[in-house]
Amino acid sequence: MFAFLLFTLLTGAGKIDADLAMSLSRCHQISRARDLKISGKLQMVVDLDSEGKAVSVRLQKDDVKSPVLLRCVRYHLSQATFKREKGKKNITLKLNFPRSNTQMSVFVNDVPLSTGLGNKCAVRNLLDTKNTGAKKGSMVVLRIAKSGKLSEIAHLDSNAYFLVTQGSGTFDWESSGQRRYHPVSKGSFLMIPAKKAFSIRGLSDPPLVMVVFFDKSGPQEFYSGNLSSKHVILASPEGFSAKQKALLLKNKIDVVTADVVLDKNLKNGLKSVFQRKGFAFTGIAKIKPGKKYYIGRAGEVFGFILQGGGEIIAGTEISPFRSGSGVHFAKNVYLLPGMKNSPVIMLYFSTYGNIVLK
């Protein structure tokens, strides 16, 4: 039932329990968040004490070649307890991590600092062409600490959709020859059109945290460290050049802003946040526990889980998610909330029209 086919015990007795199996499944998901192609087999030897607790973990064979996956697997095996056969001091495990091409759950608990983006900024690339096979969009989580600033940038071929989940700050951009400043806090929404230069400042502690969707799959290259991305212009300390300014002035669409309810009064079902000419659609879903929900879509869907946990079911594959997960699917799926007293709250972006929830 897990996102990878569980493994065969080459020596030793008994089966790996469900908790460990789920942890190893998550290791695969975390590693595939860096590179979708990560798959293969690991053969591990676990030395045990008299009670079956892991004492050391050794690698015998590795055709996966993923340091992230190996480090995660080592950690969980080192914390485990196994049923030890009489006279045997270790067990050998053959772990199989097959490639999967449906959707991903990415667990966000470490957002590395990026010195290239600006002062006191951090970013986590969640869903893009590399880790999901997405073709029409991408998603990042952006964090700006108090007194931090995201350098002035412009996305050349993609609109950017910002939803603030925590903290407060200020966006600023130029419109009709004047500088515009817009304060944001939890629940704020902004759509920054392509070729519109903007910057962001953090004003709070805790930091300003935003989920950012793009309706093209390129701009996240900039946020992940490729500052020479062809999809983005980054202003130098002297500002944009005359040629760059001429390019940016071609876009006559202005920034769209809105206040969004992100509190206990949010009603069950779908809440529309922004729709762009019937195509890209941004919204919030609140999904109560108690049954399995069908999610239908016309385009690709990117989601960020603000609250709750459960499973997304796509055919025969089941992917767990929890608060902080990013999810992507390009086919119709089922969502099963897994926490009895906590509804699932998901920010979502659809590349073509709204989703259907029933």
Describe the structure.
The protein has 358 residues and is mainly beta. The chain folds into three domains: 8-97, Fusion Protein Consisting Of Minor Coat Protein, Glycine Rich Linker, Tola, And A His Tag, Chain: A, Domain 2, CATH 3.30.1150; 111-259, Jelly Rolls (Sandwich); 269-357, Jelly Rolls (Sandwich). The protein contains five helices and 25 strands. The protein has helices at 18-32, 67-78, 129-132, 220-223, 242-248; strands at 8-9, 40-48, 54-62, 90-97, 105-107, 118-127, 138-155, 160-166, 168-175, 178-185, 188-192, 198-202, 208-214, 232-234, 256-259, 269-275, 281-287, 293-296, 301-307, 309-314, 317-322, 325-329, 333-337, 344-350, 356-357. The strands form four sheets. Strands 6, 7, 8, 9, 10, 11, 12, 13, 14 and 15 form a ten-stranded antiparallel beta sheet that branches. A six-stranded antiparallel beta sheet has the order 5-22-19-24-17-16. A hairpin with a 5-residue loop joins strand 2 and strand 3 (54-62). The chain is globular, with a radius of gyration of 23 Å.
